Amino acid sequence: MTKLKASGSEPRDGAVLSRPEIQCLTLVAEGKRLLDICNLLVLAEIQVEDLLQSAQQKLGARNRMHAVSLAMLAGAIRHETHSKPE
């Protein structure tokens, strides 16, 4: 569970992202499609949708990408840069 810090958004008081919510947001940040996320986490589509919606509400986000941005700013998920060999 990741406690959210205020980052200019309006998270619910005491909002905490669960591990599955963080996993879903991380995969969205990596550009994964909904069905990819379902397959990777072995969850039904409705479960992934519910997790993303829950995270969005906890973060006070307007949409999925806003939720990803807010989660990154709060330190709940990290953006890993992968350098490509030249």
From TrEMBL:
Q: Name one GO biological process term.
A: regulation of DNA-templated transcription
**One Pfam family linked to the record:** GerE
Instruction: Tell me the SUPFAM superfamilies matching this sequence.
Output: C-terminal effector domain of the bipartite response regulators
User: Residues in domain HTH luxR-type?
Assistant: 10-75
Q: Which Gene3D superfamilies match?
A: Winged helix-like DNA-binding domain superfamily/Winged helix DNA-binding domain (1.10.10.10)
**GO terms for molecular function, please?**
DNA binding
Database matches in InterPro entries:
Sig_transdc_resp-reg_C-effctor, Tscrpt_reg_LuxR_C, WH-like_DNA-bd_sf
Q: What is this protein called?
A: LuxR C-terminal-related transcriptional regulator
Q: State the organism's lineage.
A: Bacteria, Pseudomonadati, Pseudomonadota, Alphaproteobacteria, Hyphomicrobiales
